[in-house]
């Protein structure tokens, strides 16, 4: 899993958790320890405005 230093809104605990739990046999995290620690501490999750409900005709 490559974790580049990027916008903090993308560096969330949820994203890290998803990457870890999807690994079947082996997980190698490539990135700085500082960024990974930030992700562990970043519990902010923004509401995603995908428009999926509208596209499915539910709005």
- What is the CA-based Rg, rounded? 15 Å
Q: Mind summarizing the main beta sheet?
A: none
The residue ranges in which pLDDT falls below 50 over 5 or more consecutive positions are none
**Cα distance spanning the termini:** 36 Å
Order of helices and strands: HHH
Structure description:
The chain is mainly alpha-helical and 59 residues long. The chain has helices spanning 13-22, 33-41, 52-55. The protein has one domain (8-55). It contains three helices and no strands. It is extended.
What can be said about this structure in brief?
The protein is mainly α. It is built from 3 helices and no strands.
Which helices and strands, and how do they pair?
Blueprint: H1 13-22, H2 33-41, H3 52-55
Helix pairs in contact: 1-2
Descriptive terms for the model:
59 residues, mainly alpha
């Amino acid at each position: 899993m490559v974790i580049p230093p990027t916008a903090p809104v993308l560096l969330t605990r949820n994203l890290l958790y998803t990457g870890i739990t999807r690994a079947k046999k082996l997980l190698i995290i490539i990135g700085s320890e500082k960024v990974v620690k930030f992700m562990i501490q970043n519990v902010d999750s923004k509401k995603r405005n995908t428009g999926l409900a509208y596209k499915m005709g539910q709005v």
